[in-house]
Design brief:
The protein has 385 residues and is mainly β. It has 2 domains: 257 residues, Pectate Lyase C-like (3 Solenoid), CATH 2.160.20.10; 88 residues, no CATH class. The protein is 2% helix and 38% strand. It contains 1 helix and 39 strands. It has a 10-stranded parallel sheet with strand order 3-4-6-9-12-15-18-21-25-29, covered by helices on one side. A 9-stranded parallel sheet has the order 5-7-10-13-16-19-22-26-30, with no helix packed on it. An 8-stranded parallel sheet has the order 8-11-14-17-20-24-28-31, with no helix packed on it. β36 and β37 form a beta hairpin. The longest helix is centred in the first third of the chain and has 7 residues.
Length: 385
């Protein structure tokens, strides 16, 4: 119970302070029977402290903070404090739903969140999103020091962010989740999350997926994730410009680009990462996004891309051309052993092809080429004039 506190101070003045001025610790299950009940009874600045145990059923899943700045924390650690959503396709439930403008004063810390199944409450009603946690409607809580595992959905099996939500996702283990797009984390709809110091591993549908979003992805270990199509580690799609720095991205796999894949006018900043041991049977194993900027005014004499030895899989080359200028020549050149096709130009699959070139002549707007090439090689950009 909250009580008023009356203080007598100098000169006989009387000041009455509501106990709302003081942070309260609410214990679950000692003070409130469920996690949701603990949050419902809390006020901004309070802490809900959860005892070790496995929490299931109504009141312990689909948890909603209702916009409150409350810290929800386990007494011990994720291994001993488990939120088991018991979700399925026929009865979907997730761990947490943030949709009321929560900010960094809202915290979830120290839980295992498992067995969630995404609900069909996204702008795309055919999708089941956010199996573990969903943030939308400009909600940006802190999600720290949790284990998020065994959750599923069509997007964001572990964590799903949409509609300008930019949570801080730090020091979590996000493992063994599954989705079509972003088995670990999915950021969509201008959601610029800060994703740092996490272990993101063993997720199906890729580690991180970005769509119209530009998260900061730094100091993570992103390993052993898989995707059917693109970007086993990270996939940046449609106008996404994430900053990807100081990560270890290894042992991931996808049909195309095992480590990082960027497409659809995405322009990632990639620096100081260790990218190794990724695999892609049909496309470059490390990362794939060769974008050659050509000035938007004046004449550009030539731009050359050369593939030496035998390049791995497919190379997607997107060349922004000047919108109003004349470009006499842009050359894509294959040397050594090249097999497959270059934009409809057949090259023998068993012969050595010294050189194959595509002349673009005068081109305006965007020109895109997909070049199937053999399975092992190094790629080097020789020059952009």
């Amino acid at each position: 119970m909250r009580k008023a506190v009356t203080l007598l101070i100098a000169f006989g003045a009387v000041v009455s302070l509501s106990a709302a001025s003081f942070a309260t610790i609410i214990h679950v299950p000692a003070d409130q029977p469920t996690i949701q009940a603990g949050i419902d009874s809390a006020q901004n600045g309070d802490t809900v402290l959860v005892a070790p145990g496995t929490y299931t059923g109504n009141g312990n899943r689909d948890i909603d903070f209702g916009g409150k700045g409350v810290v929800l924390k386990s007494e011990n650690d994720p291994d001993s404090t488990i939120i088991d959503c018991e979700g399925s396709a026929s009865e979907p439930h997730r761990g947490f739903y943030f949709h009321s403008g929560e900010d960094s004063s809202t915290v979830v810390e120290g839980f295992t969140i498992r067995n969630g199944y995404g609900l069909t409450d996204s702008p795309f009603p055919s999708e089941s999103v956010g199996g573990g946690i969903k943030c939308d409607s400009s909600s940006s809580p802190k999600i720290i020091n949790n284990t998020i595992s065994g959750n599923s959905g069509s997007a964001g099996g572990g964590i799903y962010c949409d509609l300008q939500s930019s949570p801080t996702i730090s020091n979590n283990t996000i493992a063994g989740n599954s989705a079509d797009w972003g088995g670990g984390i999915s950021c969509r709809g201008y959601s610029n999350a800060t994703i740092s110091n996490n272990t993101i591993s063993g997720n199906s549908g890729g580690g991180i997926f970005c769509w119209y979003s530009s998260p900061t992805i730094r100091n993570n270990t992103i390993t052993g994730n898989s995707a059917v199509f693109y970007g086993g580690g990270i996939y940046c799609y449609y106008f996404s410009s994430p900053t990807i720095s100081n990560n270890t991205i290894s042992g991931n796999s996808a049909d195309r680009a095992g480590g990082i894949y960027c497409s659809g006018y995405s322009n990632a900043t990639i620096s100081n990462n260790t990218i190794s041991g990724n695999s892609a049977p049909c496309m470059a194993a490390g990362f794939l996004a060769t974008t050659i900027p050509i000035p938007r005014s004046a004449t550009t004499p030539s731009a050359i891309i050369q593939l030496t030895a035998t390049a791995a899989g497919f190379l997607a080359v997107v060349i922004p051309m000047p919108l109003s200028a004349t470009t006499p020549s842009v050359e894509i050149q294959l040397t050594k052993a090249a097999a497959g096709f270059i934009v409809g130009l057949p090259i023998p699959r068993s012969a050595t092809t010294p050189s194959a070139k595509i002349q673009l002549g005068t081109a305006a707007g965007l020109v895109a080429h997909t070049i199937p090439i053999p399975q092992s090689a190094t790629l080097s950009l020789l020059s952009v004039a």
